[in-house]
């Protein structure tokens, strides 16, 4: 019996695994599937730029990409999931762009400024519809929130980059702060993102000036944390941040109220 034709509920490019070469078929199918996913995402980003987020439908994206609507929904359950795909991609692109730019730089402030500036460079083509992304991400109940479980892979990639920013520098700081600092630097990037979203200056120059002004200040504050006289304050700040800003799992506060 002939194999069933692909339906709108499954990707048309999925290759069946059979005897004698099933592994190769699966590998080829996986590669084709990733190409289709990338095509849908690229098409969506283009249409968001051309038509705006609200005026772009999943049907229009599927038509432009040359796939069925069901196929588009197979890879991305909604337009919001397309935004999540965008988050994942831009985070990977930022890391790939920043890593070579950090090479040969040892000063912590310079490395931090480089990481933040390369984020602005990476995100620049998408600034036109950034407000739409921010509207979705700002909803704390949305899976698109930067702090959501769905955003964990992109968040981990970004935190890993800022860990590289720190470890590649010659900065000597308290061990506990060094463990927490990459997450704090990622939160700093989130602040830059918010500033950038509402920046209407040509080339987002105001955002770039903000980065140039804030990174030396952050570097000095981090450097001061190593002095013994400031250790109690550093410990208090660490505890505050761990409990309320970057808690890894839901827990109860000292009064017993669930967070």
TrEMBL record:
The keyword DNA-binding applies. Residues 1-17 have a biased composition (Low complexity). Residues 57-76 bind DNA. Gene3D superfamilies: Tetracycline Repressor, domain 2. Residues 1-34 are annotated as: Disordered. Residues 34-94 form the HTH tetR-type domain. It comes from the Bacteria. InterPro entries: DNA-bd_HTH_TetR-type_CS, Homeodomain-like_sf, HTH-type_TetR-like_transc_reg, HTH_TetR, Tet_transcr_reg_TetR-rel_C_sf, TetR_C_23. GO terms for molecular function: DNA-binding transcription factor activity; transcription cis-regulatory region binding. Signal peptide: none annotated. Keywords: DNA-binding. SUPFAM superfamilies: Homeodomain-like, Tetracyclin repressor-like, C-terminal domain. This is AcrR family transcriptional regulator. It comes from Spinactinospora alkalitolerans.
